[in-house]
Amino acid sequence: xxxxxxxxxxxxxxxxxxxxxxxxxxxxxxxxxxxxxxxxxxxxxxxxxxxxxxxxxxxxxxxxxxxxxxxxxxxxxxxxxxxxxxxxxxxxxxxxxxxxxxxxxxxxxxxxxxxxxxxxxxxxxxxxxxxxxxxxxxxxxxxxxxxxxxxxxxxxxxxxxxxxxxxxxxxxxxxxxxxxxxxxxxxxxxxxxxxxxxxxxxxxxxxxxxxxxxxxxxx
Length: 219
Prior knowledge:
Distance between the termini: 29 Å
Number of strands: 6
Order of helices and strands: EEHHHEHEHEHEH
Structural class: alpha/beta
CATH class of the largest domain: Alpha Beta
Largest sheet: 6 strands, mixed
CATH topology of the largest domain: Ribosomal Protein L4, Chain: A
Strand order of the largest sheet: 2-1-3-6-4-5
Radius of gyration: 27 Å
Number of domains: 2
């Protein structure tokens, strides 16, 4: 059974339906694989930024804090021991933690295809004709999305063909909408799709989707 999606004009009118590749949009749901792919993606965005100083790295005087004997207090060296306020930190983060996780290319693709299939079955995917000809104004972009989704200020992902020059006007039109992101068809990932309620494909992007993800093999 073929999968089809509605294609809308820039006026928000439904003009046709086009078939979608079953290899991408006809997959069975796999929530566990989707969750695993999301965890790997988010973990790989992490940076090992926190780093604390040891007592040997804290700058200041190394004078003995008080004499060794006769004070009734415990013996100490300088005041930068971890037990003192302003001292070094014992066993703190070193800034070299490795948060990177691995997932095979085949599994990442399968997770993305499964999620795209779910979105299609939910009626959350549609296509737009000549999206690059939209008036480069935020108001026009917002009105277009409202017409096709029937939702005011929808949380949407606009997917365009991998051509910076042709897609420049699309980025200019939608970039100021707070809940809308624009991405190239070969840059789709599990996070972008999950973080959007609606997926709006440029018709040209749909035409090249199969070539990008199945023939050329996006990494």
